[in-house]
Amino acid sequence: METRTERLKARLLAAPFQVCAERAVLWTEAQKAGEGRPRVVRNALALKNVLEHMSILIRDDELIVGNRTSKLRGAPLFPETKSLAIATQLDTWEQRPIQPFSVGDTEKRELRKIIPYWRGRSAWDRAMSLMPPDLQRDVYTLMFSVEAEFANGIGHFIVGNPNLLKKGFAGIRDEAAKKLESANGADARQKDFWQAVTITSDAAIAFSARFAAEARRLAAAESDQQRNAELLRIASACDRVPAASISCSSHFTGAISNPAASPLTTRAS
Description:
Elements: H1 4-14, E1 18-19, H2 22-33, H3 39-53, E2 74-75, H4 79-89, H5 105-118, H6 123-129, H7 133-140, H8 147-150, H9 161-181, H10 188-220, H11 225-240, H12 250-257
Parallel strand pairs: 1-2
């Protein structure tokens, strides 16, 4: 008899590689609406828009929930880093000899609508504009590569996980809000940063609340008692994580020391 883990693994490995346009579309919508605002605030509002409107899914057997895309094995896109790569590969991802990705007609239509906005605006375009022609030529002839540094910085940094575990997003938000209220002597960039922190913290908390609500919706329609209980425990965890610090909840702390007692429910990063 298959275990839960085996079923989850088999389902994931059987799923096709697919491109998901949701993140790119939602990010672009917010960036357009936020033109003229400070960049850090504009990005915070874009993240908020993504987390508020992207698809959320809780699949059968899952105890740890969270998804980055609407597909089981999907790839989100980041046009703000290098839209040229999307534009040039949109019709060829499916023909790649290594790790091909399927792209639905709906995704293609949506992506073709937003790609023009990023021409001249992406991180890659900005980097190229700062290089002299001879250096640009060397980059494009692959004499050396700077793509990871200029266009693919996602994941190339160390996040403050200890700070998050200690304070929770609610604590971080409150700290930033207090600094913002008493920021008479702070410069504009510092104020913009604190505002962005409050926006992103609230967005992360609301994102988890969406999973809590979905878990309760599924539980209400679930006839299997064991799965019903699991869904309610997921909802309870999402009510706390990532808003609360570890010290704020003995139930959460107990789950860390005894994972079988209560599943830790987290978001996908």
